[in-house]
Amino acid sequence: MRISLTKKQLIFPAIAAGILCLFVLIKTARKPERIDVAERITAVRVIQAPRLAVVPRVIGYGHIQAGQEWQAVTEVSGQIVEINPHFKKGGLLAKGDMLVRIDPAKRLTARRQSTADVNNLLAQLRELEQTEKDTRHSLEVEQKSLALYRKDYERMRSLMDSGTIARSEMESTERQLLTQENKVQSYRSTLNGIPAQKQALLANIAASRSRLEEAEIDLGKTYISAPFDCRITEVSVEKGQAVSSGQTIAKADSIGLSEAVAQMPLYMFRYVVPRGANPIAQGEKLDTETFQRFLSLDALVRIELGNDTITWKGHVARMNDSIDSVTRTIGVYVAVEDSYIKAEPGKRPPLLPNMYCEVELRGKPIDPAITIPRSALHGDTVYVMNADNRLELRKVSVDFPQGHIAVLRSGLEEGELVVLTDVIPAMENMLLNPVTDEKVLEAVKREALGEGDVR
Q1: 310 CB contacts (<8 Å, ≥6 apart)?
Q2: Nearest residue to 311 (alpha-carbon basis) of 345, 339, 272, 273
């Protein structure tokens, strides 16, 4: 009990010491100084709004496909007697290279038969022409004889009328005249029938020659060759195999022309289309050439290979006939020529089917317009610093955004100071301390000219 009383007694001196210290501090403390409140200045980055002729660009994604696809279909039946050693899946063949040869024996026999028929008919035609020639000559001779018989008949008639000769002699001369007239008529009939015979022979010759041409064509069909420089993608025949007419024995893709099929956002694609009158409405015919000339778009096809990006130049060949019902995008076909020829082993591979690719389309520069960084837009508002270095919240109308920039239709004038810093809170007339950001301005100009990434 004694120890507890002693601890309680010690508390009172400590409390008294604390009160004494507090009293001393209050007496010795200085009064607070009065500070006048000044207007706050906010440091911001700014650029002068440039007026630029922006190159409209749009990005789409898709895949590579062959510009030409070919199916080797047999037109005659027979056995495969010869095959190209490179006629295998993945093999490369030049235009005109043989793929396979079908046994030509049957076609050779048909050609020889048709040739013999033609030669036989030609011989008959020559014989008929000689017969016509000989008949005409004989007719001329017999006509001269007929003239002599007629003179003799007239002479004998006069003698009979005068009673010099008997009537029997006159009748004998008349019979000779009639016989000669029959000879002349016979030759004439022969000559009259020759044109019809000749026409029939000529028709038979034409038919035989047609059969000969058909035999030649069938013989040519036994040799199947590559229609263009190609890569074989499918083979379904072997040497010694019998094939029927109409059978597909191979498929091949052209290596001279590749196509990138990319889906483009329709709302962005419309910006790269030239602004102007419809050429069809002006009387031009509706065809692919008119369409390509009107678009006049430059195209870049990019392939990502690890850390490297391979870029190919191409041109817009055509577009899909409809909008994709799921993605609401439009398919654009970009043709790239001679990717195999322009390839660099180890650095720049050719465009192969089913490669994933990025396609960028570039239109003609639009009329110069105010262009600002896209990050400077706050909805439909742009922060502008006026001549008094104070913030102004300006409503603007955007023509179209592209990548990291936005092209304005109205709301800003060239040279006005656009605030890049995201001021929080942004209050009208707040005082600003501007710092010009030349790097951002240069980046805006480069992107407007078609440089840099537009994603």
Answers
A1: 302, 303, 348, 349
A2: 339
SS3 181: helix
Q: What is the pTM of this model?
A: 0.66
Looking at residue 214, its amino acid is E
Q: List pLDDT tens digits, range 69-117.
A: 999 999 999 999 999 999 999 899 999 999 999 999 888 998 899 999 9
Please name which of 336, 345, 358 lies closest in space to residue 254, comparing C-alpha atoms: 336
User: How far is Cα 299 from Cα 258, in angstroms, rounded to an integer?
Assistant: 13
Amino acid at 211: R
Instruction: Transcribe 355-418 into DSSP letters.
Output: -EEEEEEE-PPPSPEEEEEGGGEETTEEEEE-TTSBEEEEE-EEEEEETTEEEEEES--TTPEE
Radius of gyration of the chain (CA): 51
Asked whether the beta carbons of 228 and 252 are under 8 A apart, the reply is no
d(CA 45, CA 121): 99
Residue type, 158: S
Residue type at position 244: S
Please give the C-alpha separations between residue 52 and each of 56, 294, 346, 398, 441, in angstroms, as whole numbers: 12, 23, 40, 14, 11
Alpha carbons 80 and 93: distance in angstroms, whole number: 19
d(CA 266, CA 330): 6
Q: What pLDDT, on the 0 to 100 scale, is given for residue 135?
A: 87
How long is the chain?
455
